[in-house]
Amino acid sequence: MAASEFTDLPRFxxxxxxxxxxxxxxxxxxxxxxxxxxMTTAVTLAVRLLPEAEHAGIAEIQRxxxxxxxxxxxETVRFAVEPRQGGHTPHPDWERLWTxxxxxxxxxxxxxxxxxxxxxxxxxxxSLRLRADRRRLTVLTAYARKPQAFDEDAxxxxxxFTAHVSLAxxxxxxxxxxxxxxxxxxxxxxxxxxxxxxxxxxxAGAFExxxxxxxxxxxxxxxxxxxxxxxxxxxxxxxxxxx
Length: 243
Known about the structure:
Elements: H1 15-30, H2 35-49, E1 55-62, E2 67-72, H3 75-81, E3 102-105, H4 116-119, E4 124-132, E5 136-144, H5 152-199, H6 203-217, H7 221-232
Antiparallel strand pairs: 1-2, 1-5, 3-4, 4-5
């Protein structure tokens, strides 16, 4: 089944239909070009795949509770993640994601009037960890307007789905890093060639000059190389004029 047929699948897939839905979702996820594209696709698919889900978003949570939105299906979700009162976690349950891969909020109104989700009319939330290190978490959260929307079945589907999202996100990140590395290599090669001609030195001397200038000016090698190339092509900027 082609990934483009995903929208024709049952709203709440079970059994073999679930396997088909996850396969189609994986195809769409792995067909994305960048991590941002992967996350945007993931939140759209999450609403389609997870039973009762009405909204979805991906957020990065830092130690201390600060966070930012990375992808969202609508502005309601963006405000849920980045409330106007400072950008801290909307409810204390999210702190548990440092020690557990899944957190379910059955009814945000049970936490009182101060809960950001409740204020946005979002009664239920299912948060699933995508990535984790010492400093930050990446979390996919599905939301619903009715209480107790997400049961064990929804949690199981969510965990299967986020496994695919995590793999696709890792692949997209590696591709992006490799692409950037190739661009950086080409840029440094161009800058080295310019310095060889300008300073009448060999490749090793030109590269050494570039490294020394980078250290002296406290500028990344890539950024300095771009500056030299831009200056040489007449687009402005300063280059390296001495060894």
